[in-house]
Design a protein that fits this description.
This protein is α/β, with parallel strands linked by helices. It is built from 14 helices and twelve strands. It has a seven-stranded mixed β-sheet with strand order 9-8-7-6-10-11-12, with helices on both faces. Helix 10 links the parallel strand 11 and strand 12. The longest helix has 26 residues. The chain is globular and about 55 Å long. The two termini are about 40 Å apart. Bound molecules: nicotinamide-adenine-dinucleotide. Nicotinamide-adenine-dinucleotide (NAD) binds next to helix 7 and strand 7.
Length: about 425
């Protein structure tokens, strides 16, 4: 997946397009584009064979105007400041768009977690936390899972933080239920993607029952997205992950694939026609859902995308040039800050439960999620129509206006 583009520049180009639409003044642009704080720490760990490795960990806290900063932690070889800065900025717009009282942040460690043992991963997480936890806090910055991090990693962070600061489950979200996690959080991003996909399909007069869908990525987000859309009657005809891609024109048995991938930690070995992973993005289908890493649709392959709609379950799966090409071709692109906002929305519910020390049941979580996602979608669609603009520019403009207004009221502008 591409790392050749400057990701923060890419995100700021999207910002500027929306800022132009709402005639945002230069001072406000400057303030909103500049990250609040950026931290890099060395993360030394002793490997199983006795040698010392030093990894680099990052946290970019982008904006705190609307509340404590919120965003995931990614463990991946391509993590760097540029990527984290871009993802942190997206979190600021995402939380504002969906209307949860948080700002934006993101972090990660440059590493290949598949090459670490369970014990090494735990050490890595704990050392990172101990060195950076001065910047975390229930009213300050609250990490969550992202690529290659999960409830177990969140549990280690919560435990390490609590050694230093006293029992504080609310310092991370996406925790195991036993430690104050929320029912419904694990599935929340995929559930949100599925809600938004169904709304967008209805608007585009695509019947979700029988709609052909290709999904890149079968981790947390991709697998739950597939599961909920399968339940809604869609045919998931192609699935890809880091091991390859599979095709089944009749639609996969998604519950069986879900179970297989949980056991095997990949889709490899599941029945289906093996296809070139790159061609998955170009399949003749109704809906394409990139749910892995960023920068997968670029100027080089955007012309060849055949789907009528792209739902950005992953963050930044399209470069700005690809976005322009596809918009010109009238492909509906539902932007990441809307499509995958279900995760941070239920993270907010988890944080609320932790602060109140009161647990909700899953039905309440899912109903509230539906309310938040539907409200955000309807608002974006209305602005898109009123302004005759893309769904992305509409979404960014709503979010930017909300953050700018808060900055003004607080006196920063
Ligand atoms: P994950 O680690 O659970 O899964 C990542 C998936 O991507 C895996 O199936 C992996 O095999 C696949 N993948 C990795 N490299 C690939 C490659 N080169 N080609 C094809 N597939 C590849 O991560 P996740 O939490 O599901 O996150 C996926 C995306 O969704 C990321 O962009 C993340 O930022 C975004 N996101 C996640 C959440 C969340 O709650 N987890 C919330 C919002 C957005």
């Amino acid at each position: 997946m591409s790392k050749k583009i400057n990701e923060y520049e890419n995100t700021n180009r999207l910002f500027d397009k929306a800022a132009d639409l709402i005639n945002l003044d230069e001072d406000t642009r400057l303030l909103l584009k500049t990250p609040f704080r950026e931290i890099q720490v060395e993360v030394p760990i002793r490997r199983e064979d006795g040698h010392l490795d030093v990894f680099l960990g990052y946290r970019v806290q982008h904006n705190a105007a609307r509340g404590p900063m919120k965003g995931g932690l990614r463990f991946h070889p391509e993590v760097d400041f540029d990527e984290v800065r871009s993802l942190a900025s997206l979190m600021t717009w995402k939380t504002a768009l969906v209307g949860v009282p948080f700002g934006g942040a993101k972090g990660g460690i440059t590493c290949q977690p598949h090459e670490l043992t369970h014990e090494e991963l735990e050490r890595l997480t704990r050392v990172f936390t101990s060195r950076i936890s001065f910047a975390f806090g229930i009213q300050l910055d609250i990490p969550a899972p992202d690529v290659n991090t999960n409830a177990q990693v969140m549990a280690w962070i919560m435990d390490e933080y609590s050694y230093q600061h006293g029992y504080t489950p609310g310092v991370v979200t996406g925790k195991p239920l036993e430690l104050g996690g929320s029912p419904g959080r694990e599935a929340a991003t995929g559930r949100g993607v599925s809600i938004i996909t169904q709304s967008a399909a209805a608007d585009r007069k695509v019947d979700i029952k029988g709609a052909k869908i290709a999904i890149q990525g079968f981790g947390n987000v991709g697998s739950y997205t597939a599961l909920f859309l399968h339940e809604a009657g869609a045919k998931i005809v192609a699935i890809g992950d880091h091991t390859g891609a599979l095709f089944n024109g009749d639609g996969f048995d998604i519950p069986a694939l879900f179970e297989h991938s949980r056991k095997e930690r990949s889709i490899a070995g599941f029945e289906g026609e093996q296809i070139n992973p790159e061609s998955l993005l170009l399949l003749d289908c109704d809906i394409l859902i990139p749910a892995a890493l960023g920068g997968v649709i670029t100027k080089d392959n955007a012309e060849d995308v055949q789907a009528k709609m792209i739902i950005e379950a992953a963050n930044s799966p399209l470069t700005t040039t690809a976005d322009e090409i596809l918009n010109e071709r009238d492909v509906l692109i539902v932007p990441d800050i809307l499509a995958n906002a279900g995760g941070v929305t239920v993270s907010y519910f988890e944080w609320v439960q932790n602060v109140q020390v009161f647990t909700w049941d899953e039905e309440k979580v899912n109903n509230e999620l539906l309310n938040y996602m539907t409200r955000a979608y309807d608002t974006v669609r209305d602005v898109m129509k009123e302004q005759t603009t893309s769904m992305r520019t509409a979404a960014f403009s709503i979010a930017i206006q909300r953050v700018a207004e808060t900055e003004r009221i607080r006196g920063d502008l």
